[in-house]
Amino acid sequence: MNPRGILATLLASCLLIGACSKKPAGAPVSQASAPAVSEFVTIEGTQFRLRGKPYYFAGTNIWYGGYLGSAGPTGDRDRLVRELDQLKAAGITNIRILGMSEASELKRAVRPASMTEPGKYDEQLLAGLDFFLAEMAKRDMKAVIYVNNFWQWSGGMSQYVSWFTGKPVVDPDVTRDWNTFMDNSALFYAVPAAQDAYREVIRTLVTRRNTLTGKLYSEDPTIMSWQLANEPRPGSDANGRANAEIFIRWIDETAAFIGSLAPNQLVSTGNEGWMGTAGDKDLFVESHKSPNVDYLTYHMWAANWSWFDPKDAEATYDSAWTKAQDYLNWHIDIAKQLDKPIVLEEFGINRDGGAFAVDAGTAFRDRYYKAVFDLLHRRAAEGAPIAGSNFWAWNGAGRATNADFMWKPGDDFVGDPPQEPQGLYGIFDSDLSTIAIIREHSAQMQALGQ
């Protein structure tokens, strides 16, 4: 990637840290410009590198990391430390985390929020993110931090639109009108005041000094990548294509802004792939050509996209897996065309029968995880640009306490966000057969980097 920001500043940064960790546009990083000792994840061709070796990983999502790390009422640092140890033992080396949530009247938004209103922040929750990153560093884990959310469960883009247009929030958990919600969230890209506030959030996070380690976030190699948002879409499948131009520009300009603040860290979009880009393959490709986007991301949701019916698993699994293979391989092949690495940073499937309870079976989930992992490992071993995956998500010791399995303030945090039943897709610490599959895959992926 092209250096961004003032050249003298970038050169000074490289000298201090010992490595320029960006890939020059159209060319791999040379050993002269990226010494083997770099603690930052770098890019060479279509491959991540760390400390002079290829970096392949098995990872997870813990959106609530800052919440659990807080010393305030949402926190449980003892649980966090235990579970990071458990994940480390399972071979997890990469964790995707929510960086900022927005206070909202949305029915299923998490409470409290780390941004109470534009420009005002809950320091306890931000310090919780400090703690989470400090503990990850002790275990040599890498973080991917997304700084916004297309969806309602953390406030997200729809809340920005409400703040700066004065319109009431569009709440799909009340209206059940998802197309209207998505089109409303996409207004975010075109509201200048919302973009100004969003950039101030980016600046606040990227330039934050960790209260425990003393490091600026932008100078902390624990952070592999900054991500524009969780699953940014151009709008609904019905109307999203009309926003193509502004969506592409927003990605390019925002990625450039983040890169100017964090020249030693990577930048990614958090996009779901073509299914989350108005179903438009060309728009997915065009929106990821920017030299300011270091690598591609995609997500895969077999049940959400009506490929798989957990209540009729025997009849629908095989056809779902056929679609899943096509989806996985298409994106890997596109990454090769764009000369960038790619990460499958969200995927999951239901417990047997579509149950949510912690003691429900995981036979089809285990089958699915193994099939996904085997495909990714095979393609990586062949030299394809797939670098790793982050399963969605880690529930750990969290447990649902409500009869409807929906989250309420004060409940345990789990990987299933507040908009979804707790136990829908997340992996509990008691899911030993699934954890064993994850451990085996991690060992296979890490062996590719030796």
Automatic annotation (TrEMBL):
Domain Glycoside hydrolase family span(s) in chain numbering: 38-448
UniProt catalytic activity: Random hydrolysis of (1->4)-beta-D-mannosidic linkages in mannans, galactomannans and glucomannans
GO molecular function: mannan endo-1,4-beta-mannosidase activity
UniProt keyword list: Glycosidase, Hydrolase
Top enzyme class: hydrolase
Pfam (any one): GH5_mannosidase
EC numbers on record: 3.2.1.78
UniProt xrefs under PANTHER family: GLYCOSIDE HYDROLASE FAMILY 5 DOMAIN-CONTAINING PROTEIN, PTHR31451
Protein name in the entry: mannan endo-1,4-beta-mannosidase
